[in-house]
Amino acid sequence: MIDASTAKPDTAVVLVNLGTPESATAAAVRRYLIEFLSDRRVVSLPPWLWQPLLRGVILPRRATPVARKYASIWMADGSPLAVYTRRLAEAAGRELPGLRVVEAMRYGEPALAAVLQRLRAEGVRRALVLPLYPQYSTSTTASVADVLARSPELPTRLVEDYHRDPGWVAAIAQSIRDHRAANGVGEHLLFSFHGLPQRLVDAGDPYQRQCEAGAAAIAVALGLDDGQWSLSYQSRFGAERWLAPATDASLDALAARGVRRVDVIAPGFAVDCLETLEEVAMMLAERFAERGGELRYIPCLNDAPAHARALAAIARRALDQWR
Ligand SMILES: C=CC1=C(C)c2cc3[nH]c(cc4nc(cc5[nH]c(cc1n2)c(C)c5CCC(=O)O)C(CCC(=O)O)=C4C)c(C)c3C=C
Ligand SMILES: [Fe+2]
Ligand SMILES: [Fe+2]
């Protein structure tokens, strides 16, 4: 008889996040950005044009200031994105007994392709891949799918998105309620999502639609009226037009309207990272304070038990459909 407690799982669940530099140094940021920004899902310019620009102009200017930003949020165990992703995978593992739950990164370490190879070598026969992107985008989720397509040795299934998953919506709504119970209710709730070039949405990327639908579902769960919340996009990169309204402009408009206490949540990020901790909780909070207001940042779900439970339920459902 097989002892279930010692039998090796033949099914893995792989939580995939974007990736992050190994250290808060210009050299590590350069290595990370070269891999990330050389992905044509992220920047689609032809390599003959983009590579000299990236290596000769952008990285020499960007690596040191971005490394300084990372240094301002670095944790004892590393980059917040890496630390929280690791802890979240451990927490999800506790919710999924009998399955092998591991983390992987699309860029940097632990590299998704190597993680899939390792699982196969360990005797795992199939892997459910769950990107930690609640909303589907060609720039993120489809890029994970590209790696799966290049790793045919291990059968995989991809969870494409969970932007309106009831467990996830409930977990986010509860985190907002908890924040309000601890800090009082802000005058306005702003949902700030990572931006995307408008060009990708025009070409059919469902990201914006999913951000809007998810934010609306969270607002409904909280019983908010239309005027009590809004949605904006942060983290613009490059010169082309990105999704609007921009988070900084939305906050400026709220300040100009006399709104003094704004709660900001970033439901596009499964775990806190540079874009939430530095850009929102530090820089945008400072900017809003200069305009006389108080920005109260609501952290990502990170490794909260409710988050692990929501992701575990999504994984279980996807596995049930994969017979
Ligand atoms: C949450 C979903 C994300 C989408 C969609 C996304 C698109 C996207 N991003 C860039 C450029 C950069 N993003 C950077 C950081 C970053 N981006 C995401 C997530 C999404 N990006 C996360 C979680 C992070 C944080 C990583 C961390 O280490 O904490 C950066 C790096 C920082 C910097 O140099 O400013 C860049 C660059 C593009 C071009 C894009 C869509 C085409
Ligand atoms: Fe990004
Ligand atoms: Fe940013």
Which features does this protein show?
323 residues; alpha/beta; Rossmann fold; 4-stranded parallel β-sheet; 8 strands; 48% helix; globular; Ferrochelatase_N
Structure, described:
By secondary structure, this protein is α/β, with parallel strands linked by helices. The protein folds into two domains: about 10-160 and about 305-320, Rossmann fold, CATH 3.40.50; about 165-300, Rossmann fold, CATH 3.40.50. The chain contains eleven helices and eight strands. It has helices at about 25-35, 45-75, 80-95, 110-120, 140-150, 165-185, 200, 205-220, 245-255, 275-290, 305-320, and strands at about 10-15, 100-105, 125-130, 155-160, 190-195, 230-235, 260-265, 295-300. The strands form two sheets. Strands 2-1-3-4 form a four-stranded parallel β-sheet, with helices on both faces. It has a four-stranded parallel β-sheet with strand order 6-5-7-8, sandwiched between helices. Helix 5 links the parallel strand 3 and strand 4. Helix 1 (about 25-35) crosses helix 2 and helix 6 (about 165-185) packs across helix 8 (about 205-220). The chain is globular. About 45% of the residues are buried. The model has no long low-confidence stretch (mean pLDDT about 95). The ligand C=CC1=C(C)c2cc3[nH]c(cc4nc(cc5[nH]c(cc1n2)c(C)c5CCC(=O)O)C(CCC(=O)O)=C4C)c(C)c3C=C binds next to helix 2 and helix 10. Pathway: Porphyrin-containing compound metabolism; protoheme biosynthesis; protoheme from protoporphyrin-IX: step 1/1. It comes from Novilysobacter erysipheiresistens. Catalyzes the ferrous insertion into protoporphyrin IX. It holds the Pfam family Ferrochelatase. Belongs to the ferrochelatase family.
